[in-house]
Amino acid sequence: MNTAMTVIVLLVCSDVIYMIQGGTIQDPRCRCPTVHAGGVNISSIRKLTYYPPRSHCSKEEVIVTLKTGGLLCLDPNGSFAKKLIKRQTKVNQQRQNQRSIETLSPHTTTST
């Protein structure tokens, strides 16, 4: 057996052993192993991301990206996270409504 074939066989065997032990090739997991129970200064938040339960993670996850670049997982059942999600949902709906109004409004042109 040549060297290339030996390497391929070893890689396949190691992947099979890894999957048998409970892993997967992509190893999808929940993004938040622990959650921060308290609040965060709203002015330090750059982005809010909400993940509903998924096939590879049965938990809801709320992740804020801070302006410093750090990530912080919030307790999705906590009052602070619920307020943030409610606020973000309201902002998204207002933006969607504004886009709808802009799309439906007639564009008039005048010529001289």
From TrEMBL:
Pfam families: IL8. One of its GO terms (cellular component) is extracellular space. SMART domains: SCY (SM00199). Belongs to the intercrine alpha (chemokine CxC) family. Residues 89-112 are annotated as: Disordered. InterPro entries: Chemokine_b/g/d, Chemokine_CXC, Chemokine_IL8-like_dom, CXC_Chemokine_domain, Interleukin_8-like_sf. Residues 1-22 form the signal peptide. GO terms for molecular function: chemokine activity. It is found in: Secreted. It comes from Salmo trutta. Residues 27-88 form the Chemokine interleukin-8-like domain. Keywords: Chemotaxis, Cytokine, Disulfide bond, Secreted, Signal. This is C-X-C motif chemokine 9-like. Its main location: secreted. The lineage of its organism: Eukaryota, Metazoa, Chordata, Craniata, Vertebrata. The keyword Transit peptide does not apply. One of its GO terms (biological process) is immune response. Residues 90-112 have a biased composition (Polar residues). It comes from the Eukaryota.
